[in-house]
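Table S2 (text version). Query chain:
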Amino acid sequence: LVEIARGTLSRVTPDGAVSVVAECGGGPNGAAYGPDGRVYVCNNGGFEWRVKDGRYLPGHQPVDYAGGSIQAIDVDTGEVETIYSECDGHMLRGPNDLVFDEDGGFWFTDPGKGRARDRDVGGLYYARADGSEIRCMTWGLETPNGVGLSPDNRTLSVAMTTTGRVYQWKLSAPGVVDSPYDNDRG
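Corresponding structure-token output:
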């Protein structure tokens, strides 16, 4: 599991013991095993944290923010490799969640970051686990968060945090949306 505030990928054993697998830095968020056996992590770049009633609550973009990324982690060695930190010259702002398809590629969301007086709009991306390709499938989404594929890998669903909506796209092949999308803004 990821521990966003702690900046780690951690392992919990059946007896409840927690051990750190890797120090990711930033804010590791969504995680999934990839086709090569590594764990792929959406790193949102971190938050300013506050504690209220003993609970950590995320805030704005931290002062030491350096951007978001997609990381691949070897769970045996703890080695962390940054696979992507940008797409078409635009830095990833706050990657949140990812899901692998049957072809070994993955979809991920990036809701962006918030600051005291402004916030980013988000996007939906498709990438290859080997670092060879990343594409912005649509940009301008309002806080895209969770992402999932139907069991037949033909429908992609994305949950929007602030609006409470779920959008779906039909897929004709891995990484290919059936209907046109507007990518001219990003």
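Notes on Table S2: Residues 182-186 have pLDDT under 50 and may be disordered. DSSP finds no helices and 19 strands in the chain.
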